[in-house]
């Protein structure tokens, strides 16, 4: 059956939203253990100034370590071309530039207007184009707050469509959808995928980043699967959220997502028992930090085969 790529974002989205700074050794252990459990893509950090996010200050070292793991796609978030240059120097396989479709959120989050973010996108595309083909990372422009913004509410379809097109024209390889605020519902997911695909084509929208803020995370993931998306972001233990979206906490839980996909017959390459065991690295390194998920507590159903 269809292969689905689970992209683990906990080391970036999860860690940036908790106060505790995870030691580098624990990050390495986490990434190595999740890769050993079969996770094939991990967003390991973000190239932002250390004074803004001390939790991610060691991203270059984390990338260097992650790149030693055979077959692992090493992804990072970058806020601008300066961050992209650092990411490229570190040797990442994939970089994601967020473009908040709400300009108010963009100003709060990146302190940039849409035009300024698109300038950064063009500069990043130029950096990538200057590399030998074999060394070019995959470049995704992520349409964040695409299901609604805590500051502006709903964003007009025409604005979303225009920004998706702008990102592709700026040189992105693809666009992604990000429910930064946890406002999505399954019908909205279906509608937004159709809307953006009409602009960029099916091949240039394959992934979605979901939060479980209002309990609809897995329902939204199912809607995205049914619409043909093949990459789903999630976070081990549901760590994560958005500091600029009050109330938004927790990506969808990698363990529960991997279980749902396995139960439905999708191939993820993930060993569920090994994946659950990785949680002890988080609970040891992040004492007192809540971890979420149903599968880890309930265990696999009797005779579960996948
Ligand atoms: Zn997020």
Task: Give the structure's gist in a few sentences.
Helix content is 42%, strand content 14%. The chain has 306 residues and is of the alpha/beta class.
CATH architecture: Alpha-Beta Barrel
Poorly predicted tracts of residues: none
Total helical segments: 13
The name of the CATH topology is TIM Barrel
Number of self-contained structural domains: 1
What binds here, in terms of ligands, is:
zinc ion
Question: The biggest beta sheet, please?
Answer: 8 strands, parallel, barrel
C-alpha termini separation: 11 Å
Sheet-strand content, in percent, reads 5-15%
- What Rg is obtained from the alpha carbons, in whole angstroms? 18 Å
H/E series: EHHEHEHEHHEHEHEHEHHHH
Structural class: alpha/beta
Write down the overall geometry. Answer: globular
Distinctive features:
306 residues; binds zinc ion; alpha/beta; TIM Barrel; eight-stranded parallel barrel; single chain; 13 helices
Structure description:
The chain has 306 residues and is α/β, with parallel strands linked by helices. The protein has one domain: Aldolase class I (TIM Barrel), CATH 3.20.20. The chain has helices spanning 10-16, 24-36, 59-66, 81-90, 103-109, 114-129, 157-170, 186-200, 217-226, 254-263, 272-277, 279-285, 295-298, and strands at residues 5-8, 41-46, 73-77, 94-100, 138-144, 174-178, 205-209, 231-234. It has an 8-stranded parallel barrel, surrounded by 8 helices. Helix 9 (217-226) links the parallel strand 7 (205-209) and strand 8 (231-234). The chain is globular, with a radius of gyration of 18 Å. The N and C termini lie close together (11 Å). The mean pLDDT is 95. Zinc ion binds next to loops. Zinc ion is lined by residues 13, 180, 209, 211, 240, 242, 251.
